[in-house]
Amino acid sequence: MNIGIFSLSCCEGCSVEFLNMEEEILDILNHFGIENFRLVKEVNKLPVDVAFVEGVPANENEVAKLLEIRRNSEILVALGSCSATGGVLAPGAKPVGHYVDVDHCLYGCPFSRDELKEFLTSIIIDKAFGKKEYSVCMECSLLENGCLLEEGYLCMGPITVAGCNALCPSNGKPCLGCRGSYEDANLKSHAKILLDKGFSKDEIIDAFSLFSHRDLREVIEWLKRR
Amino acid sequence: MSNPYIPSIAKIMDIIDETPDTKTFVIEPGLSFKPGQFVELTVFGYGEAPFSISGGNEDSIELSIRAVGNVTRKLHAMKIGEHIGIRGPFGNGWPLEKAEGRDLLIVAGGIGLAPLKPVIEWVCKNRSKLNEVTLIYGARKPSLLLFKRMFEEWKKCMNILLTVDEPEEGWKGEVGVVTKLCGKVKEFSDALTFMCGPPVMMKYASKTLIDLGFSPDDLYLSLERNMRCGIGICGHCAVSGMYVCKDGPIFPLDEALKFIEKPHEVQGVLD
Amino acid sequence: MDTFVKIAKSKLKDFLQHIMENYTLYAPVKKKISRFERIEDPSQICLLPNRTEISLKPIFLPPKESLFRWKKVEDGYIIEDCLNGKEKKVIFGAKGCDVASLKILDLYMMEVSDPYYASRRKDTIIIGITCEYPRESCFCTAFGGMIPDEYDLWLTDIGDYYFVDIGSERGKELVSMELFERASPEDEERKREKIERAEQEIRKMAKIELEEYQDMEDKFEDKIWEELGDICLSCGRCNLICPTCHCFDVRDITNLDGSAGERIRVWDSCHLFEFAKTSAENFRRDRRARVRYRIYDKFVFSVKRYKLYACVGCGRCIDSCHAGIDIRDVLRRLIR
Question: Mutate which of B1, B2, B6 to disrupt the C interface (most C C-beta within 10 Å)?
């Protein structure tokens, strides 16, 4: 199977993260040929079986490029937060799914390597792949990390979708919510808890807006009205 | 003692297309089981899921499986000769001994006929031990009725009443929900009922039978829950503190009605 | 056991050293958070005045463990069981709530013997120690108090000595060493006072007394569930931190091409949306129903099944709840 990694407007951190997969990349190359990856290849081709698209289209050219990728790929994957939800580029930019059909999303800034491997396996062996319905907070508790929210940090773990294995909290940094939220997340309660803990409305609005401006706009509006 | 979490390797010996979305897998080796029990089936790499045993014996067992999820879809793509993992049998099974000398009503909806097929086969072997026996079976469409190939055989031993929600060309049977047919068994005097189907079906069929005077302690329901470990530890299948995988999956209606956390299948049955 | 025994504090290290010669020793250690760890050197041990932040549960039921590994071969699959050999354990320095929790965990995990749990749990020797002063969230007195029914040895600080209660034959064997001395009736009186004082303090703070089987069944439709459902984040922290919660998820992970893999189990939480979901239906879709289920599983269903509350009053869920749900408040309302 062939894959391509395509960059629209963004920091290209997901492309870099792909290259960071030193341990796994050889195994991946046993199963996939990379047909298109501007960061590392001079000759880039279409079509591909699986297109990973990072970033969002920022102009007509990029929209056209995205449409061309869609036409020339079996499976299109929104790679990373910007592509999947608009991420830090929202509200100005719209996610890839606004322009074309997206088959799968790999959330996170950057995406999670473990999740990418899980996704590639699902492609190779035709296994279901889906979004988790629980939080980073759950993953963090499984690691028995201790709690940054308890320590007074503004942590988005309780409303952020799991899959990163609580990478930031495990390294002493509160979750910024880069993976976005999930359907069952109790957004309003988390906002109220943060208010009770003494964070200002603006701080909370900023935290909710940072990566999920679009998906959390309802609760952000609710916060603004309070 | 052997480790109950380790599946034993089994081989797919035959695959029978039952309906467009359901296949029966005949696998070896078989195992000794009670009608109504289930196994946990592993498709290696994809996961494990519970399936009731729809027939067989120590030599081979049959599992009739609808393609709905990750494991089942992969299973449907597998071929004769391929291998799977099996743990079990788990669960309590239907109380067949209670049926002796009495009328037996079997009520099934859709894939719910699978755990009742071994009951029907037991009836056919032990017909003289029972009085009246009736099978009421409903499916969404005639093409989705399971085990049609067996109906002629079964008819020798019992009345079969069929119904579908959406008739297709050539359908001569009833149209409507299973509940409608339950009204037709008024003449049953001392009947035991075994029931399995979607929660909504079981709820309304139970209600109809109770209204007809059937006793809640003679009405048995097979519940479907998220049975993971199969041995009452992992907690996913618990309803009201009962482990459906171990204490069930079959419960008498009167017991289920006493659950503090009412199973969806019996909510409002007495209202 | 008719004689009273005590050990000088200065000799405790020798005692532990002796234990380590014959057993694997687990005791409280304070790093970023306090928990029980395998001890290589007795100086690592940190005897805290009250319970550790992490309970004893992970020693016997780790957050994540492999059940078996498998590999595809020409004619099927080869399975390798990940069940480990037994380890002779001594748990030293556990508090009453955590020791009491093991009895509950045993009931759930060994009704049908879970081989992984059983192999870790079997023959474990428990040397507990009385709490110096409780935490604000402690309420063990609602479930029988600071001293559990079952232990091998129980230490209580009485000044220069630890008073030692002997709870089993195995415990008796351990105190046969020269390190232990005969205790006086005054020593025993001092121990009794110490325990009473601490329990009194808990009672004063907790303000909750449960009868042996308190009827809470009629509160199933209470409006409390809606209130809690509104604020609960369903993060699952209360489940994971709980010394008696034992539910787990089973997952299959594979290598990239699915030719080999393993089945693992991971702690799960009944608060999560998909906990009771089947391919056809989600039986606890409502957050309210999930919040209620946990409380009922601890205080109603457990009583029906095992004739005990599946809670020891350690208060960890209170300390860990972001939404500030205090199980003592919930109980007070349920038994009202």
Answer: B6
